[in-house]
Design goal:
The protein is built from 5 helices and 2 strands. The chain is mainly alpha-helical.
């Protein structure tokens, strides 16, 4: 595991990718129910990527909030919060998120994101 101060920009990129995939999933589910499974595969892929990234880099609430090491601290905290809310919304809609391994991965990521972001919403998995 490596210290993550140099990896904050990469974390922002991974979270932005996941946020885009989650938004795409929400839009495609609403507009084109037949395309929802393809975008859910994209979300699952992004979840695995974020999980691997968080496992190999050590992020702390102090690092996330520290404007000296992280010039985009407030943006990163709001991005984490947004991803958590979108992921939780997808997580609770069991019809769209029925794959058990993906549900477990989402639950682990919700907990991991809550542990690194000081401004996270309350965790339903505490």
């Amino acid at each position: 595991m490596t210290t993550a101060s140099g990896f904050v920009p990469a974390l922002v990129g991974v979270l932005e990718g996941l946020a885009a995939a989650l938004q795409h999933q929400h839009r495609s589910r609403a507009a084109f129910p037949s395309h929802a499974s393809a975008s859910l595969l994209e979300v699952s892929t992004m979840l695995r990527h974020l999980h691997a990234f968080l496992l190999t880099n050590m992020f702390t609430p102090e690092l996330i909030a520290d404007p000296v090491h992280n010039r985009s601290a407030s943006y990163l905290r709001s991005l984490i919060h947004r991803v958590q809310l979108d992921l939780y919304a997808l997580f609770v809609s069991s019809a769209e998120f029925a794959d058990l391994p993906t549900r477990l991965l989402a639950a682990m990521l919700l907990k991991s994101l809550a542990s690194i972001s000081p401004s996270s919403p309350p965790s339903p998995f505490a």
